[in-house]
Specification:
With 327 residues, the chain is of the alpha+beta class. The protein contains 14 helices and nine strands. It has helices at 2-5, 14-17, 25-28, 51-59, 76-95, 111-117, 164-168, 186-192, 214-217, 244-248, 252-258, 268-285, 291-296, 304-314, and strands at residues 34-41, 66-67, 100-103, 122-123, 129-130, 138-145, 174-176, 179-180, 208-210. Strand 4 and strand 5 form a beta hairpin. Helix 12 runs parallel beside helix 14 (304-314).
């Protein structure tokens, strides 16, 4: 409630509308007595051991488009919800029919808090749940059930004196340990936020066009992050190692075809172009050849939002190379 009162949720009005139903499962699903929490690792199957360094290196290549690791494969909502449904079916086979409802990243559920209170991990200073054996590169899901189960215990926190995630955040969105101002967070700005991106934050986004992983990449516990056993989260063709100019050239049809079944699709082509226009403007600032020419191709785009971000990009001047956030 305090976090909402500060306005840290930005335009994510759905976070405020459900009131106490978010924090009290039985108010959301009457009859709920226990919550089964689950987590599912999502690093792609071909992730190399030094993957954190590999990802930081992308930031040093201003012409490359960076999509957050979790979004490079299939939409996790479907994958995780199907698996939770299967888990509920198997429980029903053992105990008989029971009332239940599964959630994955659903607006009315405080899933990170449920996960940490049930022992899936502790809340890191970046606010995500992390675990000593799995880091934080996993999705969360819950099944609200009408049966009483023995409670699992929370685990103790192991951030200690580390503050690497706070220090590395390019926009200083982690305003205090465990407190995130979503309005400054690149994940929010590139995915949830619908309008113009605040100009002061644009240069700080560098070449991140969908989400941001920095606070997780820097976390020492992510040395222990696990690869997914599923092919679903393997990176799709076109979403890693591509240039900004290539992705900026996608027509709306290209965008819809290539993001079919991907979480990226829901931002739509207009926000996609807005985000890439910012990244191209930052590539101009880094002196990247071809960035201006790519921007110019969309200078007459029908969307005012896209045109304004393109104009901003074209107005940038080359500046000294930015320091790499890599430690
Ligand atoms: S996702 Fe990026 S911008 Fe958001 S808090 Fe983490 S490091 Fe900062
Ligand atoms: S980077 Fe450090 S402070 Fe941040 S979540 Fe990881 S261990 Fe905790």
């Amino acid at each position: 409630m305090q976090w909402l009162a500060h306005g840290f949720h930005g335009e994510m009005q759905y976070m405020a509308t459900h009131g106490t139903r978010r924090a009290r499962p039985a108010e959301l699903v009457p009859g709920t007595v226990s919550v089964i929490t689950a987590r599912m690792d999502y690093l792609p199957r071909d992730t190399p051991p030094d993957w954190q360094a590999v990802e930081f290196d992308r930031l040093a290549r201003p012409g490359e488009a960076i999509v957050s690791v979790y979004a490079r494969g299939r939409d996790y909502h479907k994958v995780l919800r199907n698996r939770l449904a299967k888990l509920a079916e198997r429980i029903a086979e053992e105990v008989g029919p029971f009332g239940h409802r599964a959630f994955t990243d659903s607006a009315p559920v405080l899933e990170a808090e449920l996960a940490s209170r049930s022992g899936q991990g502790w809340r890191g200073k970046h606010t995500l749940v992390l675990d000593r054996d799995a880091g934080s590169m996993f999705f969360l899901g819950e099944i609200y059930i009408d049966m009483a189960l023995p409670e699992s215990e929370p685990v103790t926190a192991h951030c200690g004196s580390c503050s690497a995630c706070i220090d590395v955040c390019p926009t200083q969105a982690i305003v205090a340990p465990g407190r995130l101002d979503a309005r400054r967070c690149i994940s929010y700005l590139t995915i949830e936020h619908g309008g113009p991106i605040p100009e002061a934050l644009r240069p700080l986004m560098a070449n991140r066009i969908y989400g941001c992983d920095d606070c997780q990449l820097i976390c020492p516990w992510n040395k222990f992050a696990k690869k997914s056993a599923l092919p679903d989260f393997d990176a799709r063709e076109g979403l890693t190692g591509r240039t900004l100019a290539e992705l900026f050239a996608w027509t709306e049809d290209d965008f819809l075809r290539r993001t079919e079944g991907s979480p990226i699709r829901r931002i739509g082509h207009e926000r996609w172009l807005r985000n890439i226009a910012v990244a191209l403007g930052n590539a101009v600032r880094s002196g990247e050849s071809g960035a201006r020419e790519a921007l110019a191709t969309r200078a007459g785009h029908p969307s005012e939002l896209v045109r304004e971000h393109v104009a901003w990009g074209l107005a940038q001047q080359a500046v000294d190379p930015r320091p790499s956030p890599r430690p």
